[in-house]
Amino acid sequence: MGILKLAHGKVSTPFFMPIATKAAVKTLSIDEVQSLRPEIILSNTYHLYLQPGLDILKKFGGLHKFMNWDKPILTDSGGFQVFSLSKIRKIKDEGVEFQSHLDGSKHLLTPEKVVDIQKIIGSDITMVLDQCIDSTSDRKEVQKAMEITTCWATRARKYFLKKKIKDQLQFGIVQGALFEDLRKQSAQELKKLNFDGYAVGGLAVGETNDEMYKVLNYIVDELPDDRPRYLMGVGKPENIVEAVKRGIDMFDCVIPTREARHGRLYIWKNSNLSSGKFYQTINISNEKFKTDKSPINKDSKIPALRNYSKAYLAHLYKTQEPLALKLATLNNVEFYLNLMREIRRQIEKGKL
Amino acid sequence: MGILKLAHGKVSTPFFMPIATKAAVKTLSIDEVQSLRPEIILSNTYHLYLQPGLDILKKFGGLHKFMNWDKPILTDSGGFQVFSLSKIRKIKDEGVEFQSHLDGSKHLLTPEKVVDIQKIIGSDITMVLDQCIDSTSDRKEVQKAMEITTCWATRARKYFLKKKIKDQLQFGIVQGALFEDLRKQSAQELKKLNFDGYAVGGLAVGETNDEMYKVLNYIVDELPDDRPRYLMGVGKPENIVEAVKRGIDMFDCVIPTREARHGRLYIWKNSNLSSGKFYQTINISNEKFKTDKSPINKDSKIPALRNYSKAYLAHLYKTQEPLALKLATLNNVEFYLNLMREIRRQIEKGKL
């Protein structure tokens, strides 16, 4: 447990970042985001670069003012979205060429350009451009992607330092999929670049939980003790608990918002975090909730979740009222933030 | 100007009722509805009857508790939705048979059943079942529909009184399209039934503004002075001003929420209500708003509308973020409620 000091405020570790992909946490206004008390949120460079675009972000003096959020923001590098969203991508030494998933227009991201974009966005924590591949790819592919990632990280770090950027941190991203020697090599090389923090990338994209934990078991020790460690895109609540046990400080994941869209709600059960049964998920569209007068979430700090019944929320889903998504999103993001608060509490008490 | 006392509170006339078709004002939670300070809202019997259905509403002790709204509610009779949504409908002496627009199931609404349904809903103001037709229909059709409406109103009133319902008001609905003699005949016959209030139905469904005002010019005098008069489904802001001048007390309309879905925002200009130029609408998707740093609505009492820029809202529309609909709905419903507040202020000052 610790405190991470950033340009827009302090953040207690370990923490979870709600995702504001396109400059909004899906369905929530900023006062609703604030009511959930996150200390930092994440936004996506790839999406912001395409929409609203750099001209508008520049005009507003950055993302914070554009979206009315005055606390820390982390932005990813766009590497993952180029890998997951763009139909065509071409890895060159220079960088990665991709086609916008919106209009098919062609763009080139280079390690240096990604630094510049994130400078315009004004995020507190920036990530270097990396090449993401499926965690189950074969060794040759993985090695090549890892080497490109290291090369780009070197260029990005050099450029960042040359620009004398003071109000942002820059994190490197360890790749190497499930190959221990490649992961370790990646970590060793990034460490030499003296990043402000280190991320483990390329997990939660196809491998099993055990395979993910195995990577964490050896990779955390390879990273400097005095820098934050970020497990990108992970994950389920039990993944987060297991990763914290293995020394991870930072998380982000689309699960709480994506599951909300499907009517699946995360509900706290007890504080026995190691049991794997400290929570349950309910599918609000289940027949039995149609007449359930009990609150959506009796323990929530959000009045609407205590005051509306499960039956009402089930009705909103059935009738496709947009309010349904908002209530479920509030519930699930609150669950994830409460999980992190409980994790910090248990670390403090020496229980975790 | 006056005060209407209802089971769930007092309402200042003239007033506008935001529409909660399916037990929610589209995109808003109840605390957001409350922040707009309406004194009464409207919900639709047809939709509630189909979803969530009477069993669930009964279990909750009515719509107020189901949707967490403790102020007055008016429900329509379902007559208009049978006319506008159902693919097949069959008018019989007994009532109207229709097919659900959701699953094609067949249902029969009778004047008596509509009283019973609204009793279960527990609305403060209930409407009688009427037969709606296009305002431009030919005389023979209009006369027939008006006569059926009068017949059903007679049965509905008789049934309502027999049931000794005390905590609800019952309103009759004047039909007759654009035929002065039929409208007057309808009003005369309904007056004999001593309803708690009278609605003018079948307008804003195809006729011109002048045709609508012409009906109001003669029909209001036919209705009792001491009962509220309700112009159903109307309308544009200037329609409301003109109708108030002609003695109408109550309004509802889908415009503020429907226009919000299309990104059209109502913005107040000045208090010269008779000019027809007291407001403007802006289309937030217009190119010029992409870089507009000015607030969505600098005069709003809703912090989000003062704090977010037009450029941000334009971005939310472009990227189809659900938050866009909420912000536009808040803006437009607030505009309509402010219009009514201004109308009441000007009546009080003798200006209108």
Short summary of the structure?
The structure is a homodimer of 352-residue chains. By secondary structure, chain A is an alpha/beta fold. Chain A has helices spanning 30-35, 45-50, 54-59, 63-67, 79-84, 111-121, 139-162, 180-192, 209-219, 237-245, 255-261, 303-307, 310-318, 323-348; strands spanning 2-6, 9-13, 15-17, 41-43, 73-75, 89-91, 96-99, 106-109, 125-127, 169-174, 197-200, 229-231, 250-252, 264-268, 279-283.
Structure write-up:
The structure is a homodimer. Chain A has two domains: about 1-255, TIM Barrel, CATH 3.20.20.105; about 260-350, no CATH class. In chain A, about 40% of the residues lie in helices and about 15% in strands. Chain A has helices at about 30-35, 45-50, 55-60, 65, 80-85, 110-120, 140-160, 180-190, 210-220, 235-245, 255-260, 305, 310-320, 325-350, and strands at about 1-5, 10-15, 15, 40-45, 75, 90, 95-100, 105-110, 125, 170-175, 195-200, 230, 250, 265-270, 280-285. An eight-stranded parallel beta sheet of chain A has the order 3-13-12-11-10-9-5-4. In chain A, strands 6-7-8 form a three-stranded antiparallel beta sheet. Chain A has a two-stranded antiparallel ribbon with strand order 1-2. In chain A, α6 packs across α7, α7 packs parallel to α8 (about 180-190) and α13 (about 310-320) packs across α14. The model of chain A has no long low-confidence stretch (mean pLDDT about 95). At the A-B interface, α3, α12, α13 and α14 of A face α3, α12, α13 and α14 of B.
